[in-house]
Amino acid sequence: MTAGPEGVVDEAPAYPAKPLIVSFLLDAVLVVVFAAIGRASHGEDILFGLWDTSWTFLLALVVGWAVTFAWRAPTALLRTGVPVWAITVAGGMLLRALSGQGVQVAFVVIAALVLLLFLVGWRLIAAVITRRSRRG
To answer: Cα separations (Å) of 123 from 94, 102, 114?
Structure first.
């Protein structure tokens, strides 16, 4: 906790800009990779139409970051990773439905699992590496 101008207390610790930016960009890239994999698995052109497939999840990702204040702990597994994942999946599906895109049950399940692996998985790996480096 630090005191700012006029004695106002800032409860949010500053997080270094580089890990913050890298964390957000990694999330965004992984969402686009998810969309590209999906397009490729259906025999669709990966680049043409990639924006149409990914924008709903990217917008939901931004909402997830905002709702969870992810910038306060962008690499945190449970505080950030899990809620950002849940909001990205739910919001992405809602936006897909509202925009007339498909939201079949199988797609929802696969999207949830792949995005769990991607958005929570890298944070789990980072947590393990951080823990090991602190020990040794």
So the answer is: 25, 29, 14
